[in-house]
Amino acid sequence: MTDAIVVIGFISSGKASLYHSIRKDNLGLKVAYLFDGVGTLPQSVLDETNGYKTLVEDTCIELQNGSIVTVMEEEFIGDFILKNGKFDKVIFFSHPFESTFLLEVLSCADEMEGSLGEFISSVKLINVVCILDAESLLEDLKSDKKVGDIMSNEEDGEDGEEIDNQEIDDENYEKELSERFEKQHIEKHDHSSCCDEKGVCSSSTKQKDTKLECGKGCQKECCDDQNDEIDDLKDLDTDIDELVKSSDKLVSTLILEQISISNIIILNKIDKIEKSKLEFIGKLLNLISSSLVIESSYCKIPNFQLLFNYVVTIRDYKLESETDTETGISIVNYYQRKPFHPIRLHKLLYDTIEKNENNQLNLKTNFKGVLLTTGLIWLANDMKNKYNFEILEGKEMIGNKRPFWSTMKESEWNPAIKENIEREIKLFKYQDRKIELSIVGLQSNGFDKDTIIKKLDQCLLTDKEMELGPNTWEIDFKSDLF
Fold it and tell me: Of 98, 172, 236, 344, whose CA is between 20 and 30 Å from 405?
């Protein structure tokens, strides 16, 4: 199978820069570059100066070393990827307003048919690479804008980033996409040569049994090609509709989602921010993500192969809490060696202590100003498992439990962190059981770190309850709320 990566990133983060950096530095590798969008390649790809062979105008090109650059569509993958022999690497570039779409497609290889299914079945996803614009990251996280606002206003935006002193930018392509979201227009086929005003075909061509749907309802073979075009455009409309569904997301939510699903982060444009700001962003990323962070300008990385190496990192939950005074963004580390009382935690999260579909998060009171809470929690009624915990834009996710290392065989431990596991098991009474949460809040929205810490502390077992021991906890604090 061919190793593949998925590259995600918001507007002007630097996906075009990364493409050009890889293309220039790896001339010996035959790479399949696939862009997910609405039908055309980024203008920055088509404007490159080193020359290429156009296979299909605006949608598929061949570089001098045999690499293929095209859009993520069935016909182009079938005609120019599958028929072009084996590639050394595959790189998928996601749409700027998406986070998980390409991952969902890649995970459905067994359910897909045709050229796309055949191709996806032949690749092995190694890493998800998220590109962040260091210059605008904190302002984007602070912003109350929704993705839909960016879609509709992009045509009035400023020029995107300069790529290695060339007039190539990410924003041109994304501007085109935004305009198509707002003004999607399908030009009707001119039937004047074969159809009258009522859609009656004047051609002598034999009428088909199957009714075709063209602009005038023509039912003749002479309009077959135009009807095929309209079917393609309907598929395009469906793709656009799927993307528009994400328009109600806050920009901060989209970026945090992109960070959370990645295991490599390229922090781009570091040359455009002050050292203190860069240090704060580094701490923020270290606290909310276990991704490998690579700092760069113009998305130049020391070794292209690094993006295809398996990455194992450890999130640092022990960083000191800190606030960026300019943006008012606070990062808080919540680390405890006591478990949460499940019922008290549920009361903190919801309006009622009953578990039902109508439960509403107490965001306005108990999580005021919180942009993101993420990490792992320990519940007193379960000594075997830790639970993923996440609150993002009014949505909570508590689940995907996994066993504590101390309940597993040593042969099942992650070898990359084996020493850390051994140290925790030896040092602490309850071994590797703990609560590790990272919280990102916005002061202008009313976030107060002391208040949120106090509320979380009130959900912990008291000293008296701790004395009862695990056997009693599992019985007395038994709950099906989580």
Answer: 344
Give tens-digit pLDDT for 219-261.
444 444 444 444 444 444 445 455 555 566 788 888 988 998 8
Report the alpha-carbon distance of residue 72 to residue 40 in Å, rounded: 10
82 touches 115 (CB < 8 A): yes
Which H, E and C letters describe 407-458, residue by residue? Answer: HCCHHHCCHHHHHHHHHHHHHCCCCCCCEEEEEEEEHHHCCCHHHHHHHHHC
What's the CA gap between 83 and 81, in Å, rounded? 6
Q: Give CA–CA dist 340/458, Å, rounded.
A: 9
At residue 295, φ and ψ (nearest 5 deg) are -85, 140
Residue 164 phi, psi (nearest 5): 50, 45
Distances 138 to 163, 244, 353 between C-alpha atoms, Å: 22, 25, 36
- Longest C-alpha distance within the chain, in Å? 93
Token couple for 433: 């059981």
**Judging by beta carbons within 10 Å of its beta carbon (0-12, 13-18, 19+), is residue 388 exposed, middle or buried?**
middle
Distance CA 144, CA 330 (A): 16
**Cα(166)–Cα(162) distance, integer angstroms:** 6
- Distance, CA of 310 to CA of 482 (rounded, Å): 33
Identity of the residue numbered 379: L
Question: Closest Cα partner for 443 from 452, 434, 433, 456?
Answer: 452
Nearest to 260 by CA among 287, 296, 221, 223: 287
Instruction: Report how far apart, in Å, the C-alpha atoms of 237 and of each of 91, 110, 174, 207, 230 are.
Output: 25, 25, 17, 29, 10
How many other β-carbons are positioned within 10 Å of the β-carbon of residue 126? 19
Q: Cα dihedral sign for 46, 49, 50, 53?
A: positive
Q: How far apart are CA 292 and CA 137, in angstroms?
A: 17
Q: Are 252 and 140 in contact (CB under 8 A)?
A: yes
The SS3 call for residue 233 is: helix
CB atoms within 10 A of CB 249: 18
Burial profile 159-188: b = 16 or more Cβ within 10 angstroms, e = fewer: ebbebeeeebbbbbbbbbbbebbeeeeeee
Altogether, the residues listed in the chain come to a count of: 482
Tokens (6 digits) for 64: 């001098």
Beta strands in 201-308 (DSSP E): 264-268, 292-295
Give the position of tokens 């048919």: 113
Q: Which two tokens stand for residue 31?
A: 């790479």
Are 37 and 196 spatial neighbours (Cβ–Cβ below 8 Å)? no
7-66 pLDDT, tens digit each: 999 988 999 889 988 888 877 889 999 998 667 888 877 876 567 888 988 889 888 888
The candidate with the shortest Cα–Cα distance to 359, out of 482, 472, 255, 474, is 482
